[in-house]
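Consider the following assembly input.
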Amino acid sequence: MQFLSDNAAAVHPAVWTAMQAADEADAPYDHDSLSRTLDAAFADLFGRDCAALWVASGTAANCLALATLVEPHGGVLCHEEAHIEMDEGGAPGFFLHGAKLMPLPGARGKITPEAIAARRAQVREGVHQVHPHAISITQASEVGCVYRPEEVAAIASAAQAGPGRRLGLHMDGARFANAVAFLGGAPGACLAGVDALSFGFIKNGAMSAEAIVLFDPAAADLARFRRKRAGHLQSKGRFLAAQILAMLKGDLWLANARAANAAAAELGAAAKDRLLHPVEANEVFIACTHDERQALRGAGFAFYDWGDGAARMVTAWDARAQHVAALARALAAL
Amino acid sequence: MQFLSDNAAAVHPAVWTAMQAADEADAPYDHDSLSRTLDAAFADLFGRDCAALWVASGTAANCLALATLVEPHGGVLCHEEAHIEMDEGGAPGFFLHGAKLMPLPGARGKITPEAIAARRAQVREGVHQVHPHAISITQASEVGCVYRPEEVAAIASAAQAGPGRRLGLHMDGARFANAVAFLGGAPGACLAGVDALSFGFIKNGAMSAEAIVLFDPAAADLARFRRKRAGHLQSKGRFLAAQILAMLKGDLWLANARAANAAAAELGAAAKDRLLHPVEANEVFIACTHDERQALRGAGFAFYDWGDGAARMVTAWDARAQHVAALARALAAL
Amino acid sequence: MQFLSDNAAAVHPAVWTAMQAADEADAPYDHDSLSRTLDAAFADLFGRDCAALWVASGTAANCLALATLVEPHGGVLCHEEAHIEMDEGGAPGFFLHGAKLMPLPGARGKITPEAIAARRAQVREGVHQVHPHAISITQASEVGCVYRPEEVAAIASAAQAGPGRRLGLHMDGARFANAVAFLGGAPGACLAGVDALSFGFIKNGAMSAEAIVLFDPAAADLARFRRKRAGHLQSKGRFLAAQILAMLKGDLWLANARAANAAAAELGAAAKDRLLHPVEANEVFIACTHDERQALRGAGFAFYDWGDGAARMVTAWDARAQHVAALARALAAL
Amino acid sequence: MQFLSDNAAAVHPAVWTAMQAADEADAPYDHDSLSRTLDAAFADLFGRDCAALWVASGTAANCLALATLVEPHGGVLCHEEAHIEMDEGGAPGFFLHGAKLMPLPGARGKITPEAIAARRAQVREGVHQVHPHAISITQASEVGCVYRPEEVAAIASAAQAGPGRRLGLHMDGARFANAVAFLGGAPGACLAGVDALSFGFIKNGAMSAEAIVLFDPAAADLARFRRKRAGHLQSKGRFLAAQILAMLKGDLWLANARAANAAAAELGAAAKDRLLHPVEANEVFIACTHDERQALRGAGFAFYDWGDGAARMVTAWDARAQHVAALARALAAL
């Protein structure tokens, strides 16, 4: 019974169907009939102009999005546990040509305007220190918590205020679907002031396609050149577009996220006295001893330790009801 | 009737089957049971130790392979029409951190030990000029011609001889299968002295998986770090491994390449008085006037102009016999 | 009798005096009272607004200037013999984060609007090829020839015309002084449409200071950050500013260049039947056999071979009249 | 009365003399007769083989030294207040092609084997996190404290022990002279296990020359290529070599450092109840209120605030006895 991660879950049947429907040879790269509809599909979804590019990993999505906002001599303010800081093997340093990540503390894996202002205040004027060019926030956060629309808006205000240059605002939405599901399902609800979104589909039922959504159309041209330059412009791009379009169709992305969130909520309710963080998306962090973890593993549950006295369980779109129920019972019984 | 390129052809049914068989969630990234067999599968194929990594594009394969051979201050000797020089949007500059491509002329899209030696002789000693660190050859070449085993061996000797450092030898094998099919089917026949091979599958029946094959196992560790850092370590890597394994199984890669080559040969025979290059793989380059091209297009054939007085036709593994026959007739009748 | 290069010539006494006058401790970096006058000094000289930064080498000047005009995924059109292409050890690849140099042929070491247009026409639309972002011209050229004002203006027009983006225009002025001296001494005469100038002083009497002159003040901020980031912001920058100001004072830079040019002209006149290029600045290229070169060396003259059948002689600001006269005699007598 | 920094102090007369003696034209770059003696001069000083390269700034020295130890996908363990982390404008990100700085806490601006081990233990195996490739320590530290030989040796042991690869060890010796003076004057005393040293001269009486000293001769070739590529190979390099040789001659570097240290010690003794750190080199950090700082400035002393309740005074080789005595009196009287 697998609760390790959502990142290796199965592919949704509707995605398979869409990929197979795309098999007929079409124009290569992103010139095919599917890829060419992506901009409009996301503009529709968000109710505003945007450009959308597929890529094959969240790391590529984050880094190519940031590359539209950050010059090589700049920096990126982000949470100290952010994926770009902790889990991308130095990819931001590569894609941004040596730009500096500037980690901030923050409860629930979230950063605040206050933390941003405090860090900016530490940067001396002049050229001796790296100045931030952008802010990156993770929605849902690395500990499964969700920025409320007003929190994002406040960060966007901080980004646009001084001192110094207007900062770009990037959202790492590897679990954007889970966040939107938690917030009630309005796709654009938490995007005010966001310049670039990494919209994750792979953890949520796709196979190998994430979307970079750029709300500044001028950035799209840059991102397209950089995608090719990074070897991320696949020649049979139609298969990536097909995945994304299948996920958007009939709001499958939301339905899948709701299923994952519901499973996590069930676990969270069962372990409510042990929760390290509120369960808002599809991740559950609980205090539990080494012996308790051993017992759970002995009972057939797979999950990650989270430091010495804690564990992380992650649910996916395809969580099996009986597995979830079994783990909930086991957690309640600890 | 499509003869534009092999890069957007359909996916072979066996590849689909293998991908679907891999749908069951497994360990993420390259920890799954399929990815873990790749090293052995290629070692089997080539009869020598090697490491094999999947990536999603030929550009990524070429550049990550070269990154194991070239330091940022070095250069890469390659044909002036090489894909890395002409068609990868500057990706080598990105992946190699500013290393320099050093283009060489050469008939048939191939370079020679003499051209290599001549170029090396131009590089002054000392630090004022970029020194080559590696050679990259394309098999089959950009104009569909094939390096014979002794030609590769001679280049490998040139790489290992001085002056200066031993050069690494990379083979861009986007159409390696077509080349091996032409050479008689012994996979290792043209690899003596090659350090790193980009083994292409996407043009030959796969969807989104190429292999980087490294004959120096010490380079594999480096390539794995760099792949992650470039956003090319997909979380559901099992689907890429499945594609490659399906292509290797029962030598599907060779069968597909033979089919594409046979179609090209049929076209080449029909247009034998117009051929600009011998037809050795799956590309046919012919002299033909603007009016002739118009006529062919009017008859329903799609292909690229190749400068002012020429055209390129490319066949793929799924070339339809009646389309090929029709084009052959049309070419013969020009 | 040294005619190898002007790059290691002695330092002019006025430069020594100015450096020593700057010895008193002052604010560090470029906050000292001398560095702060540079912008105004060059604005005065050129009669237009500009920003000026000192750096310690022509390579740094060229590459930092180009970094204000070229994004990492772009390219630089330049002559195939340009210093940035041939003699800077790959520095452009480093400073421009992998941007591509795009060499052009051209008589007299100069490029033309026609060559620029022809090269741009070869770049396919889309992301598969590197597009130029800037043009770099060398004044005087690598073979000692000078762009006339109307030639620069025509290139600037080409830079601003399409297809595609407006290109930046950089002038590598390692021997800008010699070019201006040849053109009659009006400093801004050949700068119409130039965005960034590397103004060389080191070959012309300074010790270790070149100026980057940026005619787009917005670029100055970028260049200042990049200079620091490249380790080129010296803490005792006042000594570099002092050198440059001493060279500007009373047009010492022009007087020195005229002296060097006059010496070269004397040599050129003596060897007029052997000249490979007109002698316009301070370099003389002559056809001469191996035996003739041996004879000249036997007579005490040091210079470089220029391929098999030619030689290059360079004169500096401190050329000694009797050495020049002796070489002129020797050349005439060959 | 200037106690802001040692980085803009005057140039020592012996350095001026040596520079002027080098004025006669010589071979360019580092082929001149002075530059060619540097390796031997430092080998003599340290009693072991080494290579030595001049560069014009401490930032360049640090980053080029680190570039011999760190690959682009690696990291550098350093103190969280280290110059490379705080004050080099992102230069390490540039020179190391995006490698990651991994800051550590530590009393007195120094890091310990324990902190190194703790940080290494946090790095998960595999490619998802950046692994350190090198350690950089600052001698004397950013707060003027000195690593004892046994402290350096313990760090070197930590560098060579696992887990994972042997780490390179770099010493940022911008104030190496002050540290050696404090330790008793044996130049090699604190260098056991150090691979690369940035040996600072500019703060200590030179104008524009620091030395990169590499104890692995194989690294020298790499550093020479990278220096050129970074625009740091000056054409009149003889003037940098002259500065360094003048500083080494008769141990002028030690004499100057002793003078600066003595001045700082005098201040430290006067303010001994306010010291935030022991005064071991030429920097004095004292607790003092805003009003006290105002009073000192009113009395004519220039120095930096160090956060809200502290100040930093720095002494240089040319500290004037009466200024030092005056400040000592003022501090004692606070």
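The first helix of chain A runs from residue 13 to 21. Ask yourself how this observation constrains the way the partners meet.
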